[in-house]
Specification:
Structural class: mainly beta
Distance between the termini: 92 Å
Shape: elongated
Oligomer: single chain
Helix content: under 10%
Order of helices and strands: HEEEEHEEEEHHEEEE
């Protein structure tokens, strides 16, 4: 009877070799200079940033059509004082600093209670003279050329009782006043400089991109200890890259404004990082 092989049992040629253990496998074959590759898993666990710090990212700027007098977060114009006016004076010149913004202290960040505002000021020249009148001490948290005033509360530096004074302007010198759209989010927990620099490069880049936004609250990039305000516990109030704002503010070549409040929200400090 002729077989067509379909459905018929066929002997495996290598069957006896495998059964007796005489079969050769790839791992049994060697050649001169042969090398082997092996898979290795990373011994460093992936870094997970716990998002725990509330933040309000600045999403949009809206130029005010008329003076904003409500106690809301805004940039430029004139302050909406909650108490007696406390306009900070430059330590070196004795002249009024320039008003930058007022920020509502969010209860989620700074505790429940009546409305509180933080007012940010810097020493800054008039339009057309801001470069020649630039004061390098404006970048220092304790240089006397910037100020964060909290109301209700008392500011300890020199002040004038003026309700209005120098404010923001545009590149053409026209007055500037803006409200903002704020988007609630979360930042990762703060990290000391040594820990940040010790992260793998991709994780360090991810941390940087997560916190590198203009915002109210949230987390600042790790700072060198000598850059921080005088000893104390501080919480980020404002992060603002002033080269990308709709108004003109000359604070250096590539400045980033960082304003801080004490944990009890009674006093503030400001510094400028300039790369």
């Amino acid at each position: 009877m002729t077989s067509n092989l379909l459905g018929d049992p066929i002997d495996r040629v290598d069957g006896p070799l495998k059964v007796t253990g005489a079969a050769a496998y790839p791992s049994d074959i060697t050649y001169p200079g042969l090398v082997h590759a092996a898979l290795a898993q990373s011994t460093i666990a992936p870094v997970t940033f716990r998002a725990m710090v509330p933040v309000w990212r600045i999403a949009n700027w809206h130029r005010a059509a008329s003076p904003v007098t409500q106690p809301i977060t805004k940039f430029g114009g004139q302050p909406t004082w909650l108490g007696r006016p406390q306009w900070p004076l430059s330590a070196s010149r004795g002249t009024p600093m320039r008003f930058v913004c007022q920020i509502v202290l969010q209860p989620e960040l700074f505790g429940d209670g009546p409305v509180r505002l933080a007012y940010v000021f810097v020493t800054h020249g008039e339009h057309g003279r801001d470069a020649e009148e630039f004061d390098p001490d404006v970048v220092l948290p304790d240089g006397g050329e910037n100020a964060v005033v909290v109301q209700p509360g008392a500011f300890t530096g020199p002040t004038a009782s003026s309700t209005s004074g120098p404010t923001l302007y545009h590149e053409d010198g026209s007055p500037a006043e803006y409200t903002v759209d704020l988007v609630r989010g979360e930042d990762p927990e703060p990290m000391v400089s040594e820990a940040y620099l010790g992260l793998p490069a991709d994780e360090r880049d991810r941390y940087f991109r997560t916190v590198d936004h203009d915002k109210i609250g949230g987390t600042a990039l790790p700072l060198d200890q000598h850059d921080l305000p005088a000893p104390g516990s501080w919480r980020l109030l404002l992060r603002l890259a002033t080269n990308w704002t709709p108004f003109h503010l000359n604070l250096g070549a590539a400045p980033v404004v960082l304003a801080f409040l004490s944990t009890d929200a009674r006093e503030g400090r400001l510094l400028v990082e300039d790369s």
